[in-house]
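Assemble and predict.
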Amino acid sequence: MAEVNRRNFLAGLGVTVGASLAAVPGLPSVGIAHAQGTPKGNIPDTPYKIAHMTFFTGPAAVLGEPMFKGQQLAVDEINASGGLLGKRKIELLKADENAGTDANVKELRRLKLSEKIDFFCGITSSGNTPALGPVAEELKVLTMFVDGCTDFLFDKAVPNPHYVFRLTNIQSADGATTALAIAQTWPKAKRIAHIHPDYSYGRNAFDHVKIVMKKTMPQAEIVSEGWPKLGTTDFSSHITKAISSKPDLVVSSVWGGDYVAMYKQALRYGMFDKAKFATTLALGVAPHALGKDHPEGVIAGVHSNYHFTFPGGDKWPVNKTFVEKYHQRFNEYPNFQAEGAYTSTYMLKAAIEKANRLVGGWPEDDAIIAMLEGMMMAGPGGYVYIRPDNHQGYKDAMIGFSKNVPEYPFPILDPARIITIPIRSITAPPGWPKGEPTSTYTWIDKTWPTAKA
Amino acid sequence: MKICLALLVLALAAGAAYAGHELTFYPSFYPQEVTVRFLAQPSAAAALLRKNALHAYVGGDPFQGSPAGEVRWLASLRGFVVLRFPRAVGAFAEPDSRCAAGAQLARTLGDRGDFVAHPYPVTPQHEDYVLHYDLAQKARERTAARLPRVRADGALGKLLAAAGVPTAAADADAVLEEVSLPSLLAGVGTRLDGWTGPPWLKEGWFHAWLLQSASATRAAAQETFRRRTEGGWQTAAERVGLERRLVRQLSASCERVVLGYTLRREPVNDAYNEGVENVAADSQSGLVSPIFVRTVKLKDFPWNGWLQVGVAGAPRAAWNPIAGFGDLPGQMVWAAVGDPALLLDPDNARFIANRARPISVAAATEAPADALAPATLRPAGAPVPARTKVVYRVLLSKAHDGQPLTVADIVYPYAFVARWGSEGGRDHDPEIERASALVRRTVAAVRVAGVTKEVKELGDLQLMYDVPEVEVYLQPALEARIATAIAPPWSPVPWPVMALMEQAVARGVAAFSERQAQRRGVPWLDLARDARQRSALSAIAAELERTAFVPEPLRALVTPEQARQRWAALRAFARAHGHFLVTAGPYMLGKVSADRAVLPVFRDFTYALGVGAFDQYPLPLRAFVTGVERQGDRLEIQADVESIEKAARSYKIVRDAFRPQPPLEKTREPLTVHWMVVDAGDEVAAAGASREVRGNRLVIDLAGRLRPGAYRVVLALALNGNLVAPEVKVVPYRVGD
């Protein structure tokens, strides 16, 4: 592959930095508040049952509870305006994903067979989507996974989905986004230390950071790898190992409470004074999950590419309205799961309305599916597009730099330095053969040029 | 019988790699480290709390009137305020006059500060309050009487003064005293290894029994107490009737009149960054309970973080799991390092499953011949009479020395108490005898029915656990609630630690209990803090490893090779950590100094319970009766229920009309109405608990339960099992001829 100039290379990928909104002109969109005209045909007034399964207990409840709230907000809004197609009020059922994978599969069967649900939504864990996806297909349950972002779902578990969709960007986008942000921000960094959790997410993040950096920063070398074992609470050996390798940059995909424990320990060692720092998930939990002692100016990944402060101000009214309503209702700021569930619900509504306009009456699931395939919607986080071939949602990636501001008791992304990347630039296109470790990895490896060092 | 278990495998499923970032199971509980600080002065705790250097203080209010800063208070039952008449003379010679005087004084005092006027021993902090509500009301409503001359010291003297009651000195008719709950329970509770008891430890009628210690009073109620504790009833109404009769008999002489109770108020830091949330505390023991460390979460951490807990006073009790850890610092440390078979429910008097999980209770006639005799752990060889069979599944894990627990570990406590608790035995320790009396009297046999595999799927990670299923046969016929709590098969301490302690005691190095230590003139056994004992223990452990020692009762369950491995691991642990307090609990004993103990989390994936496992216990919710309607032989109850709306780092409790719980919304326990029907003579005609729902109403079905007559139905609602300070309703009910 030929070498290219890095700046041109990043520009070619569409990587931009600033406070701008990366819009995609010329594509059809359905606004989230899109008004439904008079529906065609007879619409039943029986409730439309949505089952929402996510974590209400356990460590992942920090993700799950906002996810449910996001859907609850959308459902309340839709019901307040008369329901789906103005007639069918949504009945929202909830189930705790913390019951375990086997129990969740049984619960999905029960929801379909006993509760007669019309739509299954939610799911936080990537351990659950590959188990639930095939069952949803078998049961013919229209399904929208809000998260559970593993590439494995549509690469392998459900390679030809019909009933199953997923809104979240795939997992590989986390590593690729962070790596491009690094290349954009600290392109001269040479000595790279890594600290990643010793399970598949960490491996996935490491792989995708590495392959993107190989292409964009070929001068960079990995000088240290730290793989904290599952359950590690003392990160000091990994921190000191990284520091002792004299890195220009430390990259990490440690998340949640482990990340908080790690950064607080790293503060004691002065790690953030000794090297730059980039993460895939620093702000990828919930806005209030970090304290103000979190270092400023680090590249702070936001899983699934949503942080409530972006697009900010009046630039994107859908987000402004969503954040205001969410905060008013729940007295907290939405995380990416809340935005995903909210958008999922409106996507369903839009698909039902479009199908009704085409065929009249209450549309069959197949008609709704046909409308979802290829749909692009303007959600709070920007445009999200459902690719028809794999039912995967794609939203432009964004990442930024942690910053403390007086308005919030937790760090946010620096509004002046948001990096956006068109999602098409960092995911394997339709038709690309399935690859190892992911299709995106092999696509980057085989098709991206290498920037000049 | 040889039982060899390969335990607890953490495995990668072949060919799959799809776990997301959101690993959804973290073994053990929220904090990654708990530091227990022993604070001699409450003022030191107050200063640390104000500096945000402490997250919680165990033992009471350290501020004592000074500004508290950003704290939240948790209230629990501290004790009873009683009026004691040392002499039955003069105006207070008769029980009636003493009873009336007590009620009058309670009325005069009223609710003040931590004192709640309540002239009845069963209080709203007790689960059985609803079953005594009418009697407590009657006690309040006694006719006015002359106040006695009362002597009181300290806080109670101030209480009298604040109420305008003059205090007397030597000429006093009565003495006002506070009987703290811990002092009341000292010497009657079982806190032995992984067992907690007795099953009625938190019930009001039992506290009433303990409060009335005069022999004449006890004698009058002895038979009722025996029937209540030995299962001498057939129906719930009979049981409740026994409990009410017991309290009545105990209160009849009014030599010691309960005037009310006091609340312990313990602060937790509520600051936005430095505070904690998700805190469960026991309604009676407060923060010094296992549920606290299993729920508390630092606000600045989704999980992990360094928890700082202050405890009143320096440790005095020795640290051994058999008859140690009895003081407040010890209880706090053991709450985290130990791991009971069952936990006490913080909001009622029942137990909740922890490491031993009761799965069935059934009537039986005998234990099979291959069941193990508890004293020898050898097959009995012939059927053993037994009327109750309890089946448990036991969550094993590795111990802190890296060795997986096995069936041998969880059955050894039965043999241990048989050796050390039997009166007249060579190795007898009176404290073990007392604490294990119910176990030894009740357990007929134990049988390991098998071991099943349980798998927890975490994406590409599979956690596999071997879960023994153990049958425990009990001699008497017992209701499930009692039967499951007596002697679950479990030990948080591996058998080598038990055996090491036994060897040390048998060789005169130390004694398990303080009493026995004093009697024999040896130290109180401490596995961690006494250098001389540690040295002796090291020498013994070396010998036991060399000889591959296996205690006699375990010789059919443990091979010499296995034993040698276990001893080697224990010794290696002791060398690395400087102590022998190896457990299979969620926190390890780390560094110990005069002013603190540091307890690092045991985040080992063989530990089957995880962060959030007890998240339904903080913030107990209440339910309220909004209407009661009679429909034929049924009472239909309309209710409001509370729910929690969490918001960022805070929460709001909201109240809405009750609607039946959708089947997929799992909560701790559905809304339950606890009720009893009493007749004009205050006798219990029927009693029960109902979760039956029709429409949006709970139903009490009384059809066929009552003879014609006039009754009162006393009822209270429990949401998620919470029966602390319930709203109680009394509804007239008549059954016609």
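Residues 1-17 of chain B have pLDDT under 50 and may be disordered.
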